[in-house]
Design goal:
It is a single chain. With 112 residues, the protein is of the alpha+beta class. It has a single domain, classed as Sandwich (Immunoglobulin-like). It contains two helices and nine strands, in the order ααβββββββββ. The strands form two sheets. Strands 3-9-8-5-6 form a five-stranded mixed sheet, with no helix packed on it. A hairpin with a 4-residue loop joins β5 and β6. The N and C termini lie far apart (48 Å). The structure holds copper (II) ion. Copper (II) ion (CU) binds next to β5.
Length: 112
């Protein structure tokens, strides 16, 4: 390994690993599930920005977040929180639902 790599590789790795390194260009948006409903049911997010959804399930049963137009689905076990990377979304409205309780668990992501 060349001498400059021996020095810069650890510096680069530390830069990539530090939590702050990625934080500036992404937005965390919270969504929760309780009584088989999403909160909020109308979830506004910035368009064209890297968005990460944090979905917390406060029910005693599992739920599956499913957003067909954005092609995202993720099971959320009781009392846990999952991260769903939405990425950069075009302006628009994207319905989602909870696949295990479709009658009540519905919402829409509004990107603008
Ligand atoms: Cu599914």
């Amino acid at each position: 390994m060349p001498a400059f790599l021996r020095f810069f590789l650890p510096v680069l790795l530390i830069a990539l690993w530090s939590p702050g390194a990625w934080a500036a260009d992404e937005v965390l948006v919270k969504l929760s599930i309780k009584d088989h409903r999403f909160n909020p049911e109308r979830l506004e997010i910035p368009a064209k920005t890297k968005v990460i959804l944090l979905i917390k399930n406060e029910d005693a049963e599992p739920e599956e977040f499913e957003c067909l137009p954005l092609r995202r689905e993720k099971i959320v076990f009781p009392g846990t929180e999952v991260r769903v990377v939405l990425g950069k979304v075009d302006p628009g409205e994207y319905p989602f639902f909870g696949e295990y309780h479709e009658a009540t668990a519905k919402g829409v992501i509004v990107a603008r």
